[in-house]
Amino acid sequence: MATWSNFNLQNGASPLMEQIIFFHDHTLIILIMITILVGYLMMNLFFNKFINRFLLENQMIELIWTVIPAITLIFIALPSLRLLYLLDELNNPLITLKAIGHQWYWSYEYSDFNNIEFDSYMIPSNELNDNNFRLLDVDNRIILPMNNQIRILVTASDVIHSWTIPAMGVKVDANPGRLNQTNFFINRPGIFYGQCSEICGANHSFMPIVIESISIKNFINWINNY
Ligand code: CUA
Question: Which residues cross the membrane (predicted)?
């Protein structure tokens, strides 16, 4: 989850988030190099004497400052496309979870097993326990098994919401009358927090998402005893 003064991305908990972080770092390095180069050029512009008489009709410099940015953009575009298609790929999911956005809470359905379904409301500030996070904890958490491919189906019942959970690298809009799909693979146990990220009304800030990642053995146990 996000903690104080966290300037960077949150820690990832899935291979997709790992790839997203790699791409972010890669692009940021290119961005820093461009900024330094342009900054250096601008500084030089301030301190030269404007006496270059040959900078008219100079096709060579035109060619250089056209082709180099074009090549630089390819170095961003190709990894970006790779990531885009990687995020969309489904690899034989073991379980499917359906997330439905409402004003203003999420409800979940595990239709693979005993048709488990429940609502997930934020815990109000005046009912918090010492181990809860304000505006982030819910009464009924999503329980999911780690080290398994998981499919998420996202939809909404009233207005557009967005099922967003940074540690998984997942952000899918929940549209009424549509069923969106995404997937992830949780590679460690833990509790992962997310929030709705589509402005959906007065209590938009108060419909958080919590995933509790546990071992497959405990997950089966939870399913059987629900
Ligand atoms: Cu639901 Cu914002």
Answer: 20-42, 63-87
